[in-house]
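Sorry to interrupt, but I need a hand with the structure work. Can you supply me with one protein entry, sequence and fold together? No commentary is needed, just the two lines. Leave the record below and I will have a look.
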Amino acid sequence: MKLSAPSRADVISGLVVTVMGVAGLVESWRMPRFENRNADPFTVPGLTPGLISIALAVLGLVLVLRALSSGGAKDLPILHWTATSAARTAFTLVTVGVYGFFLFGQVPFLVATALFIFVFTVGAELLNRERRLALLPLIAGALVLSVCVAFTVRFVFVEVFLVRFPG
């Protein structure tokens, strides 16, 4: 069976997502379960990553099966990228990479997360051609958003989930 370009893209993407899901499941299974401490099985560190990995693997398989059975979607939006879409995607990849590889763990969590959210919010809005906010309200809103989200995320993970953050 010869697949169209969109179908091939769906098959390849689905396989990549499936492999990532299976790899994540294997690694989450290898995480400590603290049986020697009689830990509640619903609080082990690998539970949430494992569930997310299962969902990724299943959705990847669904994508592959859909592409193989129906010939795939004919009009994938990713095939019709504009320069603006490509710029926003590149901006997203760069900011997430800088946050994950250079800020997280090297800079205190609150500072790194607030900085990331602020830069991402302002940058994404400035790259949006349909933006309606003037620069000053945009910066003020991004500042409030970044500080509130950074403190909320830290509170939820540290106080509710009892996760210790680096920095």
Notes: The chain has two domains: 1-77, 81-167.
